[in-house]
Amino acid sequence: MNLMKPAGMSRRHFLSHVAMGxxxxxxxxxxxxxxxxxxxxxxxxxxxxxxxxxxxxxxxIDMWDLKPTSRNxxxxxxxxxxxxxxxxxxxxxxxxxxxxxxVVRSMSTRxxxxxxGTYYMHTSFVPNPTVVHPSFGSxxxxxxxxxxxxxxxxxxxxxxxxxxxxxxxxMAHAPFVVDARGQIRxxxxxxxxxxxxxxxxxxxxxxxxxxxxxxxxxxxKDVYQKAVNLMTSPQMEAFKVNSESAETKQAYGGHAFGDxxxxxxxxxxxxxxxxxxxxxxxxxxxxxxxxxxxxxxxPMLDTGIAGLVRDLKSRSMxxxxxxxxxxxxxxxxxxxxxxxxxxxAASWSTLIGGGGLNGGLAIGETNEDGDRxxxxxxxxxxxxxxxxHALRIPLDTVHTSKRGRPMKLANGGQPIKGLIG
Amino acid sequence: xxxxxxxxNLSGIPTNTSHLSAVKxxxxxxxxxxxxxxxxxxxxxxxxxxxxxxxxxxxxxGLCISSGNAVAQTKFTTGSDDPLxxxxxxxxxxxxxxxxxxxxxxxxxxxWVRRVYLDLVGHxxxxxxxxxxxxxxxxxxxxELIKELLNDPDYVRNFTEIWVNVLVGRNTPDxxxxxxxxxxxxxxxxxxxxxxxxxxDLVTAEGHFEENGAVNFIxxxxxxxPRSEEYHVEATARLTRIFLGMQVQxxxxxxxxxNEWKQDQFWSFNSFLRQTRRVDHDKYDPKTxxxxxxxxxxxxxxxxxxxxxxxxxGLVQVAVPNYxxxxxxxxxxxxxxxxxxxxxxxxxPDHNLARAYVNxxxxxxxxxxxxxxxxxxxxxxxxxxxxxxxxxxxxxxxSGYDMKKLNQWICNTEAYNLTSRxxxxxxxxxxxxxxxxxxxxxxxxxxxxxQLFDSLLIxxxxxxxxxxxxxxxxxxxxxxxxxxxxxFGGNEDDEPTLFSGSIPQALLMMNGELVQKAIxxxxxxxxxxxxxxxxxxxDSARIRSLFVSALGRNPTPYELxxxxxxxxxxxxxxxxYQDLYWALLxxxxxxxxx
Lengths: 421, 594
Known about the structure:
The structure holds two protein chains of two kinds. By secondary structure, chain A is α/β, with parallel strands linked by helices.
């Protein structure tokens, strides 16, 4: 049968139809060849950052900056490590890798509310009613992701949710959220059906674009193209953490947190510049802090992070991959009546390492009771400036908000001297 | 049709006989032959299709003739006889003449009916409403439809959702009752309460966050340490921005760079809120052994005296409650929020509250207000149409802050009834490129998350597709809505005209459960209804039904001749229709309000 019988049409009119049909078919062919593209090239020596987020606010006084001689010290004892500092006895595996990692012990951030603290630590800026600042993951996506032309999956991936907003950098740099098993919602479609659907979609979309209504119509088409590239990209393999052997998973602790970190490593290896991993389980330990840490949180954290460091090292990726483990704030040095610790932003610690930063160091210092900083103090902007340095994002980078206000990278923070050089 | 309309702009209606013969689709029977038996009762008859096409041609011809007559009549009307609308039209026209642009043609009925549904009731029109409107011959049908939609229950739902988002955002702040705020707004819109009364409640409310839902606006902005000077900053900023259209938050830290507002302006407003704090109540949960959130309330706390703030040079200054020049005693005897509510909502000779509302609502309907953004008004940011804004403000106050009346005025204007297509003489009227809006054509708006979700349900009836019962259908609906709000809802600060498409959004539309269900053609779905409708006797009739339902228009000749050919690539006839509907729902045209 001939569906294209050009009855009543001029020859030119007919040809223009054929030409359009041809263009659409070509689109579908490109799409199919894309499917058969070669496996992802391993991206070595590309800079990346893995942020490990301890949502709720981790009691860093029980983890990285113990105070055994103070009544604030609690139940845990410090142990020596391979680095030049001591950490909690319940982090023995990390202790063995501490020559690669450092602790900043003099974080002072003023924001002791979950929402405000989470915003501040992710963006380097305190919440401000005039503007929504981008999370640093979005900054990395904006600065690095856009330059990695071979990268077909999003440049800012959040494993387990969170990651905050891309702010004024726009939704193209929003965190792409997956769960710890690497399941991405809404990516599966029968490829045969996709081809014919896209062909019809193309016809309808192009028709609307031709009605001359401004840029939105084309912008929509472009986003769909990206989504199709993603759906059909061989790089999607990076998310399939369950294809790893039980042995490899065991090296990361064999739990959900370990799986998330393993996925982060796979993503970084594929070229993703920023991965945020949300620790499964909350750290808002107002009650029963020591039992919860000892029996649940710390063993998982310990085996997961140690596994990640070892794996990155064995793949020669640690020099290019910065790891930072932090929360929205620390917890009160004083132990409350429920054997818990409350919110505390005045003096707390973060773990940072890899990416060419100096390992094995304690940077900054708190007093004997842990409730005051007795050295230079640091803000999130200083951490992110340090990471920007490691990622080779120029520190004088300035972004412009939607209202045209210049915004300094990392809020003008400076790299922490002891960690670089 | 009582207004100027160009024949060539009737989207989807063939006007040229050579096109007509091109859409005969003589070979499309192959689809029919393989379709379920209920489609086979009346196999496609060429004469049926021809009849249909001929009737379209007659209709198109008729429209051309009628609009030909209308050319002589230069004055645009939707059928409304309110004299204020003439004034608005005149003011807008002055802008066109001054800037030497020629307005685009009036939107055809299909384009306009979809737009007015989305703007007033928050979703696209159902297919039968489109058909009814298109076949209505009344010259006043547009003004009639506006009236009808303002009394639709979905009008209340739509504006409730819009205002909940404006007041507290899509991500409800911690320990704030979205349901409480919704209930308060629902009642306000259902009764069409005067806007100044509604605003007064939102600014002055105290109490339990569910019993008095109006408290949630301020409650949502009070986070963190109540003793910190930051505690009332967000509430100050939101309140002045939303109700007065003033961005005083810039003056939190410094004098306004572009106008005479001084730093004390922010802190004067801030002083009004200092007697306010949230009180959170917890309850012990024996199961988890932890304290869980119970309820919250907005409470009055004793506070007197001035507020101290720091200049950039470190000097400490004082501010007292002061509403745009009217000072209020800072004694602890004064109930400061009550005073603010009175001054702002009832005793402001400049009607800042009314002006900010008018500007925001104009922006709601056009995508751009008279200032950009709509909530940054002041001497540093002059309005595009200052006289019009003043007159509308004045009339809105005179009407008793009648929200429906204002909507009605705007929807009946000539500008609101123009097509969104540019023409060669108004290309400079492009606010998305930074130009001042002239309203010489409609600006394309991206659907908001709620509009998109509700429109998908209207177009597909997905919630009833294969659902065993009402509860199950409702559960499904809730789950999908959560997905949509999470994935599409993250950009409430964007102007509605910006497309903020992200990959997860595209994926949700392409492969999400809602769209899957929508095209499943299970019993109860719209697609099923079309495919089993015996009165639709041909592929083109069925294709047309899907176009009307999703896009509110007829397919173009190009689409009618090409899509059936593409549909042949699908593995089965049913799949072909599913794939077509998928393409329609995923198209740029579906997701925008034009």
